[in-house]
Amino acid sequence: MLCRTALMAAFPHVADGWRPATVGEVDHVDLPLRCHFESVDDQERCSDVLDYIALAWTVQVYDLGFRDPMFDNDHIFDVYLSTDGTDGGAYVMGEGGDADPDDGRMAQPSFMVLDPTISDEEMESYVAHEFNHVLQYSTDFIEPTLPVWEATATAAEAWTLPGYQIYGPWVADFQTHTWMGILGDGYILWDDYDIWSYHEYGAGIWILHLDHTYYEGTGASGAALWSALEQDSRVNEPDVLDAWGAITGGDWTTALEEFVAFELISGDPALRPEWVDLRDDGSWGAVPYTTVHAADLPATVTPEYGIAPTGWLQLELPDAPEGLEVSVDGPEGVALSLVAVDASGDLQITRSLPAELELTGPLQLAILHLGSDTFDADDRLEMAEIDVHFSVPEDEPDDTGDPEDPGDTDDTDDTDDTDDSDVGDDAPSGSASDDGDKSGCATAGVAGGSWLLAFGLAAVRRRQQRSQALRTLR
Questions:
Q1: In a domain, 74, yes or no
Q2: Exposed, middle or buried, 361 (CB in 10 Å: 0-12/13-18/19+)?
Q3: pTM of the predicted protein model
Q4: In which domain, by residue range, is 345 found?
Q5: Over the stretch 137-156, which tens digit does the pLDDT of each residue have?
Q6: Is the Cβ–Cβ distance between 189 and 197 less than 8 Å?
Q7: Domain boundary at 107, 125, 142, which?
Q8: What does each C-alpha distance from 188 to 6, 89, 145, 196, 390 come to in angstroms?
Q9: Cβ proximity of 339 and 365 under 8 Å
């Protein structure tokens, strides 16, 4: 379900006094809900829409823990069946500034507009998505990071409607542009790179992973994340990364590594958790930027656009040899991490680069951008231009000699002629991480399939300092 969420944080009074023109209205029998229609032909549909909102209200507020919708002066929530600005889709628009300066959060009332041409089959999912935006406005209307709005609302569709599958191409689209990360969105991709993308919607996989990893798949993660976003001023602290770290009990960099580890196995039915099978329509799965073959070593991969903070370069290695070394050239001061998973589900995570891979054979690998010391989630995204180098170093000749062995005194060439299949056999496993991270970052080696359980994985800009009014996507 695609929508336009009119996030009016930059211009909080734009919507004041404006509502779509209508010819009639229908009230819900139990809840303070009112449906307005611009054509008498849509009057009957209002009853269905009100019932859909009542269901979303019950599930998302009473079951999942989101805040109640904030009302305007008549204490009734308004939804409109209108073609005014919908272009076949839907949107939610906030009104006014901070409705209650004493409640500890930046919250405001909003209203919903649904295009009457939305099909009966899709209307309920549209409403579930849009109503979640209503609750977001009631929590923190100035949050500037678009994916936390759209990804949470997309996940709310699944939480509200039993058996609902998130649209797989959105997820595949997100994974195709993983270098844009959790903070990027389709507006940045379009404005800066001429790439049309539903990135922020596909990021719903991020919220679902968060929910199943930390909240047992109950759906409580969305409300917890948005509650952690609350602040009582226009200074957006805590930001989305602060909130993500807070509800996962650590920091966002660790949570990102966990999520990327999951992403690397999300397309493998043998490794991914069962909940993915319930939500995937058959088109999810890792989408590597490119493939690196052993026959091509040494090799260097340079992503065309670099990677944004919280983004990652996703690579496929079908036949990674033993002793494979990975090094990265990147901007000074940018923290990086390596995450790799093999075909058995064994995992390697390290922030000590260069690193020797402890895994061999078919691998999925990612290089993550963990930001810099001065990075803030609300900053304009600065892409890190990187070069990722893969190599298998040749064995060094033994030049120490043995005075008791005359064989070491002749002029024989001692260069090791071992073929490539033996390269790295004598290298200590995990040598790159055994030295520790001199910058103080943690290093994790191969954890076997146990990481799947530890991470809860079962078996195994338009944020660009301008208006946040969003485009209509359908």
A1: yes
A2: middle
A3: 0.83
A4: 290-447
A5: 999 999 999 999 999 999 99
A6: yes
A7: 142
A8: 17, 21, 12, 10, 30
A9: yes
